[in-house]
Amino acid sequence: MKKKIGQVSLILAFITVVWLVLGMFNIVPLLIEISQETSVRAHASLAVVFLLIGSWAFWNED
Asked: Is 62 part of any domain?
């Protein structure tokens, strides 16, 4: 179960990083906006959260 959570979170992190890069070139809109913060920073934090979940899932994996 822990490995499946890690795989799903890594896939989601990859998608959010691609979305972030495409959004920086205005190809796709950055939909996540937090007041008083830039949308790029808010979107990048989503990718970091997914990467943290993925790293937790593969911690001590034998």
From this structure: no
Scan for tokens 């989503």, then name that residue: 46
C-alpha span between 53 and 19 (Å, rounded): 19
Q: How many domains does the chain have?
A: 1
Residues 10 and 48 sit within 8 Å (Cβ to Cβ): no
> What is the tens place of the pLDDT at every residue in 2-41?
888 888 988 988 988 888 888 888 888 766 666 776 665 6
3-state secondary structure (DSSP) of residue 48: helix
Global pTM value:
0.69
Q: And the tokens for 47?
A: 């990718």
